[in-house]
Write a structure and sequence with these properties.
L,D-transpeptidase catalytic domain-like; ten-stranded mixed beta sheet
Length: 185
């Protein structure tokens, strides 16, 4: 069984080769190309995606497709080849495991639990949506896993990866559709 799992992991890594440009390490390093940047990760560290649970504060280890970039139009769209979508004041992201819209964008007001996208602390001025638990979402396996802006002190996230604004803009300038962000333990 263990050998089969190893072969599957190696085969998967070969399939991803050339697509993984961005790697977030549990020690707070974020690498792309020859650059090594500082990042913030979940307050509970990094854990295997199969053990990730809603609200546990862990960043899920794995290779996650970069889906799109959400941005506040009052701040402006970043330069990127990735799909861009503006954030409205009336938008959130469902983090309610019992909601049929779990781990998707929703319009506010909303009856279920959600993460507000238009925030006063500005960490979601730029949000890169990662393909964690989204095809289709499984209840309680984690939602709202984004690459977003770090707080000034790089304090831990709720399970996301966070970079400074200049670093995130540099990543977005290099990112292409089909690229993958890998989070490693």
């Amino acid at each position: 069984m263990r050998k089969t799992m190893h072969r599957m992991t190696v085969a998967r890594q070969k399939d991803l080769r050339g697509k993984v440009k961005f790697v977030a390490h549990a020690d707070g390093r974020f690498e792309f190309g020859a650059r090594s940047l500082r990042c913030a990760l979940g307050r509970a560290g990094v854990k295997a995606a199969r053990h990730k649970r809603e609200g546990d504060g862990a960043s899920p280890a794995g290779a996650w497709p970069i889906r799109k970039v959400l941005y506040r139009p009052d701040v402006g769209a970043p330069k990127t080849a990735l799909p861009l979508e503006p954030i409205g004041r009336d938008q959130g992201w469902s983090d309610d495991p019992d909601d049929p819209a779990y781990n998707t964008r929703v319009t506010l007001p909303y009856r279920g639990s959600f993460e507000k996208l238009w925030r006063d602390d500005h960490i979601y001025d730029l949000v890169v949506v990662l393909g964690h638990n989204d095809d289709p979402p499984k209840a309680r396996m984690g939602s709202c896993i984004f690459l977003h802006l770090a707080r000034e002190d790089y304090s831990p996230t709720q399970g996301c990866v966070a970079l400074s604004r200049p670093d995130l803009e540099a990543v977005l300038a290099e990112a292409r559709p089909g690229d993958i962000l890998e989070i490693v333990e």
